[in-house]
Amino acid sequence: MTESTLNQYAPPRAHVADLPSSAVAELKVFSAQGRIGRLRYLAYGTGASVIYYIGLTALLFGLGGTASSVATVLAAVVVIWFSVITGIKRCHDINISGWWTLTMIVPVIVFVWIFWPGGRGDNRFGPPPPPNTLGVKLLGLIMPVIFFVGILAAVAIPQYKMYTDKARAAQAAGPR
Fold it and tell me: Residue 8 falls within a domain, yes or no?
């Protein structure tokens, strides 16, 4: 034994691995490793959808026939691959296996991933994701706003049409 271990005034020496680290993970967009939070998951999904639909529109109006079809299928494959990658990272943030991404076929499960909070500290998949930037916050909040406006329009437009039809019918009947 060395003299330092016999010293009763020496500090204890032990490896402590259960303390959470204050570091955040490096963000790797095109890798299945790591974790992403709820808002970043929404932002990536929104960004991928917007890029896909812009590319789809450009392809449909720019090319014709077979080239447009092949490019559209390739774009769809890339978007599906990216969705699976982000789904795996979201599963890792919830501290479940990435194989749960296969349940993405069921639309309700995706809503669970959006509303279920991830762990604040380290888990078996690594340290927590980095904080969200302003761009991620704006892009992540676009989809819920569009969803809300779409539902509002789906309810309000038929009701407005019914109101205008009744008003025209009342005008055609004349005063009483």
Answer: no
Which residue segment(s) compose the domain that 45 sits in? 27-173
> Average pLDDT of 12-31?
71
What DSSP assignment string belongs to 56-69? HHHHHHH--THHHH
Q: How far apart are CA 137 and CA 114, in angstroms?
A: 14
- Say if residue 19's pLDDT is above 70: no
Residue 2 lies in a domain: no
12 occurs within a structural domain: no
What are the residues facing 126 on neighbouring strands?
A: 123
Contacts of 93 (CB under 8 A, 6+ apart): 35, 36, 37, 118, 119, 125, 128, 129
Residue 16 lies in a domain: no
Reference 113, options 128, 132, 145, 91; nearest CA is: 91
Question: Which residues neighbour 117 within 8 Å (Cβ) at sequence distance 6 or greater?
Answer: 38
pTM: 0.67
